[in-house]
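Reference record:
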Amino acid sequence: MAIIKPFKGVRPPQKWVEEVVSRPYDVLNSDEARAEAAGNEKSLYHIIKPEIDFPEGTDEHDPRVYQKAADNFRMFQEKGWLVQDEKDCYYVYAQTMNGKTQYGLVVGAYVPDYLNGIIKKHELTRRDKEEDRMKHVRITNANIEPVFFAYPDNEEIDRIVASYTQEKPVYDFIAKGDGFRHQFWIIDNPADQERLTRLFAGMPSLYIADGHHRSAAAALVGAEKGKQNPNHRGDEEYNYFMAVCFPASQLTIIDYNRVVRDLNGLTPEEFLQALGKHFDVEEKGTEIYKPARLHNFSLYLAGKWYSLTAHPDTYDDNDPIGVLDVTISSRCILDELLGIKDLRSDKRIDFVGGIRGLGELKRRVDSGEMQVALALYPVSMKQLMDIADSGNIMPPKTTWFEPKLRSGLVIHKLD
């Protein structure tokens, strides 16, 4: 059973929400955060990217930077830019992209559920990234940014959520930059809260969609606080961390593509010929070609697009990992032909989220920076959940969720 609870959220007053909210800390670098926050003292980047308050080039892992995050969080509350709700609430957070809306429930997720596998992951985490976020959680004593969960569809939860979203939202704005709509409602009715808690308790699992490092950091700090408290009961606020939970059917995973700097000593002709061992290769000309279905790939090389269709012997439909297109391409193209063994560390490869479009792949190859680009058909939510249920881990850079959650709509304090 999945344990969740409502919490007293810390939120911006309605009049300042658009000034406060930001993109997640990990989708932009320090220079981009500094530019986006320019002239805006209320920007959440002062808390989640506090190196912007130091001279350019300051190490974002400097102890002074973490301390600045805590100082700024305190200052935001003192100035009234962030205000804590007086009673426990669940919250509904809706995002609209390209005419499609997804409705998430903002909850306190249970730390032991992460540690015992009820909250399921599909990616490996890196210890250095975990430790960075753990330091941030420890020093602010809060989950400043939410993690992004999926749950199996449930009609009764949909009905409860819909009863609130028919009302006027507390927040409703189009975010600068991405153009997506963000809306927010408060569920403070005790009967509805209790029913939602019970409905989640009937679910065997929740699934991390995005935010594996934030999930790990939040859970590890929560467990750490429990061990440090001689009077630990198990119901303290630090036993929970903030998550936005969406019905799996509403989520969109978009493609996550690859660009490679060289052909590992092969000429374009030799590379195309070698691809024929595992793929049916069809030239598509100079117009952008998008993968048409599972096991079909798009390749851009020397000014031309190609369709690659994997031979049936390159994948196993009964293997949740072996059937993935990212596995096929990693094994049969990146490793076998291009000599790229480790997607996490090899400097010859880079990754491009599908939100940028296939034109970005063409641009990076045409510029001479990269020599070849590979576009993949996106993974499905069913594939993600099957892999998580089987205890397997997806290869690196497999999923890209869009739209991203905005940070700063609500914050969860650990005490």
